[in-house]
Amino acid sequence: MTLRPFVATLPVVAPYRLDLTVSVLRRFSTNVVDRLSGDGDYERALDGFSAPALVAVRQCNEAALEVAIDAPAGEAERALALVRRMLGVDRDLTRFDRAAAKVPWLRGLAKRMRGVKPPRYPTLWEACVNAVVFQQISLHAASAILRRVIEALGSKLEGAGGVLYAFPSPQTVLGATDAILGSAGLSVNKIAALRRIAEALLGGALDEAMLEERSSVDAATLLTSIKGIGPWTAAVILLRGLGRLDVFPAKDSGVARSIAVIVGAEPIDVAATLKALGDYRGMLYYHLLLARLDARGELTA
Hints:
Elements (H helix, E strand, L loop, with lengths): L2 E9 L6 H9 L7 E3 L5 E5 L6 E9 L2 E9 L3 H11 L7 H7 L3 H9 L11 H10 L5 H15 L2 E4 L2 E4 L4 H6 L2 H6 L4 H16 L4 H5 L3 H9 L6 H12 L10 H11 L6 H8 L4 H14 L6
Antiparallel strand pairs: 1-5, 2-3, 3-4, 4-5, 6-7
């Protein structure tokens, strides 16, 4: 199927930084679905169309992004809507900025990272898979496992910066054998959890609209009714999949390490910080992630 080039300008709520927003979306430089160039340009492969689409995004100025899309005829507008969702272009974080400025240990980090927006995965399915794969193992181990799953099952596209993979669909994962999924490093329990989630999404027992119409507490209850999704996993899905900033993944193993990167051994009352941030507490998750990336030298200048 022939892909048709499509270019659009996407307004953003300033301040906006594409490089920081994409950094918290992709998390690791080993990510084969999202690519961020040294110049801050972004490429992403998208599934869910009659043929996989390729999007390329560049920040024109503080108020707009330029989006180029190679997608099947008639489907580029839908791809553009996904880009808008993924990159948080409409989110106004004025209240977070004001709250963060009143937290001494967070103030400097928030100022340096001003312009990051809360990204969202393009689908609820992708949010669920990421949350499940990253359960109870190191971030780097989980990243390697997820990469192997995507390379084994995802569609391959050639982008400007090299090969990218579209994230595999729930149908594709359901059709994969346990041997294929297990060889990527997924445990038996995680394979079972992913199959249950895929079946719930494909069968209509779970969809994004069900979660959108519920409060975060009630949405988390619905998610945790699926075996394999606990409170931490549900919080990650709501934050990274639905953009719910009023949730923060409690007992996240990376929180203490990330805070140590910022303040060293100084004791920090995380509960008090979350209370001060109120309904924007989820942005702390992204700022701690940026602090880790910055400490590893993985942020684009």
